[in-house]
Amino acid sequence: MATNRTRRLAWLAGGISLAAILGGLYLARGEIALALTSRGADKAMGANLTQDLPDGLHAAVCGSGSPLADTSRAGPCLAVVAGQRVFVVDAGEGSAEVLNRMGLSPGLVKAVFLTHFHSDHIDGLGALAMQRWVSGAAHAPLPLHGPPGVESIAAGFNEAYRQDSTYRVAHHGAKTVPPEGFGLSAQPFAQPGPDGKVVFEDGGVKVTAFAVDHSPVHPALGYRFDYKGRSLVISGDTAKNPAVERNARGADLLVHEALSPRLIAILERAAQRADRPNVAKLMADIPDYHATPQEAAQTAQAAKVGALMLTHIVPPLRMRALEGPFLGDSRRRFDGPLWIARDGDVVSLPAGGKDIDLKR
User: Fold this and answer.
1) Cβ(189)–Cβ(147) under 8 Å?
2) HSE on the CB side for 23, CA within 13 Å?
3) Helix 277-285 with 261-273: angle, nearest 10 deg
4) Deepest in the core among 114, 120, 298, 302, taking most CB within 10 A?
């Protein structure tokens, strides 16, 4: 059997050295990079996740983070795909970019639903609306559904981006970026109660909004989506609340926010040691209007949902090993599939069955 040394000598004897090969690759690296970029661009431009999904209801995580800085998570955002139609619930910072990376071009988005008006749930709206208009050559503004107050949100973003919109039209032309497609169009609905109210119904998609407890934030809502016998529920930001259990009863998937008081307490103590009393007070305040992973698990168990996905992760989990302390005994409180959402996750609920399929 030839040794490595023997093989190398035979190679060199053939007139080709490893150094020569590596040198050639180094000199050609630019052309190699261009070829790879061209292939990647073809794949990205042609990507459309909706075409790869079976008919049914799907939850695509376009943002699983919170106001606390987290380089691995965009701000709160969930794309709901019903058949070939794409709806978005909340649009936190960076969520439009995550949608693009997932193969869900903002140009595909039919409407946005807001759970509440905290900045981290709306600060990506401008980018989402702009990318949807430009990439999709939209001929109508992006519908923005929400409780009373959504009018001000839409008007504010429209005003902030109005001057930019004139540049786009002047540069690219009205055929490429139709002026009438710019911005957001507020679609307010009456404030629902905890029992829920149908706020959208079209093409077999039914959306029910219900009041949750994120006091002192009012209004604050959760949503239930139903399509072809499958259902998913989004809690919005809330303390443990019977309205979530009531509206999630029998749903296939519950997407529930979660905060770990144990981990937040570590940040509070660190702020105190650093003589940052304002930050310490913020950390002390936030647990009372969010649910813990254990409480979310209890709600999921009581509602008899098929699976539970935790999102709006507070605080950021800087190491994967922190997922255990974050969850605590949640898996003992809920006997179905349970996982912590990551940006890019897609949970599929195919029509005509009970399957729940998570792709990461």
Assistant:
1) yes
2) 5
3) 170
4) 114
DSSP output for 121-186: HHTTHHHHHHHHHHHHT-SSPEEEEESTTHHHHHHHHHHHHHHHHHHHHHHH-TTTS-GGG-SEEE
Neighbours of 182 (CB within 10 A): 23
Q: Please, what is the Cα angle at 260 between 256 and 263, to 5 degrees? A: 150
- For 335, list phi and psi in degrees, rounded to 5: -95, 10
Model pLDDT, residue 118: 98
Catalytic residue numbers read: 120
Q: Amino acid identity, residue 200?
A: F
pLDDT along the chain (360 residues), means of 10: 54 65 84 90 89 96 96 97 96 97 95 98 98 96 98 98 97 96 98 98 97 98 98 98 98 98 98 98 97 98 98 97 98 98 98 95
Q: Give all domains of the chain, ordered by start, each with its CATH number.
A: 1-46 (no CATH), 47-359 (3.60.15.10)
Q: What is the DSSP letter of 239?
A: S
User: Which pLDDT score is estimated for 9?
Assistant: 47
d(CA 357, CA 360): 10
Q: How far is CA 192 from CA 189, 223, 247, 249, 286, in A?
A: 8, 11, 12, 18, 25
Query: What is the Cα–Cα distance from 76 to 67, expressed in whole angstroms?
Result: 9
pTM: 0.92
H or E segment to which residue 269 belongs: helix 261-273
CA torsion 357-145-150-181 (nearest 10°) is 110
The structure tokens 């035979």 sit at 10
User: How far apart are alpha carbons 118 and 38 in whole angstroms?
Assistant: 40
Cis bond before residue 293 (omega within 30° of 0): no
Residue 232: strand pairing partners: 225, 253
